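User: I'm preparing a small set of examples for a lab meeting where we compare how different chains pack in three dimensions. I only have the primary sequence for this one, and I'd like the structure in token form so I can line it up with the others. Please keep the answer compact; I'll paste it straight into my notes.
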Amino acid sequence: MGARAGVMVMNAKAVRRLPHWEMLLEGWHKVAGTRPFLWGKSDCCLTACDAVLAITGIDPAGELRGRCHDRRSAIRVMRDYAGGGVESTVVKAFAACGFADVPPLFARRGDCGLVPSDDGPALAVCMGKNWAAQGKDGLVYVPLQDGLRAWRV
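Assistant: Understood. Below is the structure token output for the 153-residue chain.
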């Protein structure tokens, strides 16, 4: 275990949710619920990674934060990091954190997954029966059965 820029980095076998993670997830949900979409601050990937950071102390987006400010720069950052878009970026970042793929219907509260959006796959957080993803004016909710991929956090 080591630290990088104030972010905890752990090996895959040490990944555990923090004590009282349920309360931490609810705190994230309350803050993210009405926060508007903003590239590089509260876009779909960073909003979901904020939830992961809150409940585990691990930031899957640690290498990507602060590197984009609009759609164009986000596309460039994802291409440079993982060779593609949202899905390949999430796959690489979550694998680096040791988060295993799970079938989307087996996702549990606090897990992350990709859901369909008008702009392609969006990263979301499982809130039980729904996925919560960053929308234009806050979180939007997608039924669990609409998940495309999921990772155990």
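A couple of notes for your slides: The chain has one domain: 18-151. Confidence is low (pLDDT under 50) at residues 1-13.

User: Perfect, thanks.
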